[in-house]
Amino acid sequence: MIDGYGRTIDYVRISVTDRCNLRCVYCMPEEGVCSISHEEILRFGEIERVCQILAENGIQKIKLTGGEPLVRRRLPELAAALKQIPGIKSLTITTNGVLLEEMYDALADAGVDSVTISLDTLDEACSRRITRRDELNRTLEGISEALKYPEISLKINCVPLGIPEQDLCRVALLARNHRVHVRFIEMMPIGMGKEFHGVSEEELFGILGEKLPRFSPYVGEPLGNGPCHYYDVDGFSGKIGFISAVSHKFCGECNRIRLTSQGFLKTCLQYAAGRDLREV
Ligand code: SAM
Ligand code: SF4
Q1: Shortest-distance Cα residue to atom 25 of ligand 1
Q2: Which residue ranges have their beta carbon within 6 Å of ligand 1?
Q3: Which member of 6, 197, 218, 279 has the greatest number of CB atoms within 10 A?
Q4: What's the rounded Cα separation, in Å, for the pair 221 and 198?
Q5: In the chain, how long is the greatest CA-to-CA distance?
């Protein structure tokens, strides 16, 4: 599938729910998150049908996301069905990890290729402040469980907020002893993110460079489906990556479309343009 700007589109990100068991300050308000009713969100059969049609049109990679995808009941069943679709080469999930420990085995059985876990800090008080919930330990249990499955690639996403207690070096150090890539995502001015300043990639280099060994640009095989650029760090098992949508715009290389939980196909994260597929 080639879009109007000549970009090859082969990747769809599907929000399977708008609900979440956390309330990260840059993503959702504390109160008043309007919960879409079950009838309004796409059923598994509808998601499968859309994915079959997308695969016939050149989509090869699917990401399940949200809200928090693991709060959607029977998610591994959906994952297994999508993985079976001819033409789908990769099925990945991005999750906050809170429900991951109990579900990992089922996700592995479903054939999930890669899991990304969001972890903004290893400090309990800071985690409570960012997520407005007390679930850090369950996320860490999810990461420990995930490390038991070497066949499933594992990444950590961390959004720097510019607060020292977040201790970004401590998060980055997870990649030293574990086979996990740690990626720092620049705060995007979307949703509640508009109220935060975030930390630019250049500033991050300064912060990480104070405590971590030498960085050198990674030039091997692509490590994922997106715009993250990675670095090797001396002595580290995993890589350190940066997704810098604001300071290093990557719209020219965009390869993705998005399906909302209600079936609206969005061509860009930043704009409302798209089409309601249920209506179609
Ligand atoms: N709930 C899951 C999670 O947190 O991983 C999946 C959905 S969440 C919206 C996907 C990713 O987007 C997370 O890594 C989260 O930190 C990131 N994110 C949310 N709002 C953001 C913003 N304003 N700027 C940058 N990243 C953001
Ligand atoms: Fe939930 Fe993910 Fe948003 Fe945090 S970033 S509130 S975990 S959807």
Answers
A1: 187
A2: 20, 26-27, 65-66, 68, 94-96, 118, 157, 159, 185, 187-188, 190-191, 193
A3: 218
A4: 29
A5: 54
